[in-house]
Every structure is written in structure tokens, then in C-alpha cells.
Please model this.
Amino acid sequence: MGEAHPAAKKIVVQFCTRDIPSLTEPQRIKLIKLVGVRYNPDTDVVKMSCEKFEEPAQNKRYLGGLVQKLIKEAQNEEDMFEDVPLDFRHHKPKKRLVYPESWKLREENVRRLLEARREVKLLEEQKPVVNGAEIVQEYVRMLPVGGSGLLGQNEQPSGARKSIPAAAMKKQRLAGVR
Model:
């Protein structure tokens, strides 16, 4: 039916290190050191992905086995990596914007805004609604009898210049009169 999407085989696993009940606190810290840059210190979540194999099920099985190996290694008390410090240089915390207190709405400002909105609403309700049909009827009544409001062929608006026949225009041009 066509080609499969290249990312269709990708599997992502996420887990919280505190959700693993079989780990003590030193073992949890060892697990964090083992996973390295895959750990997010803000959310305490480890995120790993795999697209090594063609089938998603194979990638899923691989990641499941990898997580089991990591937990087993973290539980191994032989070397707890006490000499290795936690390194979170890979993580850039998101900047959380803090709005100034003066920008926040206080109860008195909320009351003032609500009152202003009520006043605007009352003013809008008091305005008469314009009925376009009545205005058109009024205009039609004001038109001269038998007229449509549009100028006929022989009618000129008051104060308009009369048109000059083409022959007269030609004579004026030849004579130099403008």
C-alpha cells in the first residue's frame, strides 16, 4: 500500500525513578547516574527511545530489557558510584515567568471593571436600533414622482455643466479655445 513512515518503528519509554518501589534512595541516585542525559531533574522522569529494529515490538522488548538491566545494575551494591557526582549540565530548566503583583487584578479593580461593563451594556440597550427598511421607505417617499432617484438621459443635476456636442468641441480645439 505504500511506504511505512520511518518513525513508525520508534518506541519511547518514560518512567519516574521514585515510582520504582524496589529501589532505595542510594540505588535511585545510582540509576540516575547510569541513565545520564536521559534523566530530567525537574520532573524526575527518565525518557528513552529506540528505533534500532524494524518492528516496534522488537524495539519495545529491547527497551523493556534495557530498563530491567538498569534497575538490576542500580540494585548491585558492589559499586555505588559515590565518587561520581550527579551531573545535570545537560538540563536547561524552563524559565517560569513571574508577573509583578501590580499586574494582578485586585478585588477593587475587578469590581470597577464589572461596573464599567454594566454601564456600557446599559448604554447599548438605551440606543435605538436603526431599522434599515424604514430609512429606505423614507427615501423613496422623498423622491420626485415617477422618478427612481437616478438621473434620466436628458436630466441634468442642478448646477451641472451642459454637455457640448462633439462638432462644437472640435471647432473649439482647432481654434485654440479650451
Q: What stands out?
A: The mean pLDDT is 85. The radius of gyration is 42 Å. The longest strand covers residues 11-16. The domain at 8-75 is CATH 3.30.160.20 (Double Stranded RNA Binding Domain).
